Amino acid sequence: MKKVDVYILSGFLGAGKTTLLQNILTQEHQKNRKIAVIMNELGETSIDSDAVSKDTPLKELLNGCVCCTIQGQLEVQLNQMLHEYELDAIYIETTGVAHPIEVLDACLSPLFAEKLDVKGIITLVDAKRWQDQEKLSIQLRKLLIEQVTHADIVLLNKTDSLSENEKAKLVAEIQGLNPNGKLYMTEHAKIPLSFIQPKQLGEKKHHEQSHVSKNLHLRSYVHTFTNPIDLDQFEKFLREMPDTIYRIKGYITFSHSTESFLFQYSYGMPLYMKEQIKRKQTLVFIGENLDHETLKQQLAAVEIVSN
Ligand SMILES: Nc1nc2c(ncn2[C@@H]2O[C@H](COP(=O)(O)OP(=O)(O)OP(=O)(O)O)[C@@H](O)[C@H]2O)c(=O)[nH]1
């Protein structure tokens, strides 16, 4: 089955995410691709939904941030979209205060992770805001930096008011934080679609595979077990796995029990919860430097193969 591409549009409040989305939708429609949009806003009413034309499926997640309070709602909306429409791509516009790891996490429900192909995180940076970042609280500055560090593509936007010297200084700063991401300077978030589409990200992925140690971007890996797994071996795997795996979630069944468990792992803490329904045994991993082949082999080794 063809997977649906997912793009996460990240960036601080007012950086130009909606402007970029409009540019992208115009270009996607010219290519006759079927696109859907999920917009997340902190307020109770949507401000930006008019930016999306009526013929584009749109789901709005209001009054909270998908990276924390309404993470579950994003899963529901994504699932519904996959059922209702035949899509080529889904663009998710996050709130300005969303944390990239948590958003990626919210997109990757083990129930449908195999149907989605998260192509990457595109972060917009408001050039002026970046220059004035010392006016922000420490937490927000940290967030601004995290949004840049984890991006696959950074658009340094609103460069219209900058001098050439200022531009060069900001480019150096951003490249210092994210040397492997692609960086483009934009005005009104104008960028050809081909610069941010699968070919670009795909090429980079290929590049990453051959330079794994240099890859600093968030990636996911989806593993489906066909047999129950050995608890001791699985816990050994958890103890020994690289600390660049930030998050694991999904469903597993152990050889010592007939029950299914919802498994959650974040910041070093594993959690097992009994599930009422028997689920497909799928685990989603999120982290940096994910070596898919090694993970696949290590996870296959914790399965108990019945004869
Ligand atoms: N001068 C200038 N203004 C811009 C540029 N890009 C976007 N804007 C304006 O900046 C404002 C905010 O842009 P949006 O696209 O709404 O930003 P956003 O990131 O979606 O904002 P939130 O949803 O509030 O987080 C709008 O008034 C845009 O027209 C640019 O390159 N230069």
TrEMBL record:
The keyword Hydrolase applies. InterPro entries: CobW-likC_sf, CobW-like_C, CobW/HypB/UreG_nucleotide-bd, P-loop_NTPase, Zinc-reg_GTPase_activator. Keywords: Chaperone, Hydrolase, Nucleotide-binding. CDD domains: CobW-like. Gene3D superfamilies: CobW-like, C-terminal domain, P-loop containing nucleotide triphosphate hydrolases. It comes from the Bacteria. It catalyses: GTP + H2O = GDP + phosphate + H(+). Residues 218-303 form the CobW C-terminal domain. Belongs to the SIMIBI class G3E GTPase family. ZNG1 subfamily. This is CobW family GTP-binding protein. It comes from Metabacillus endolithicus.
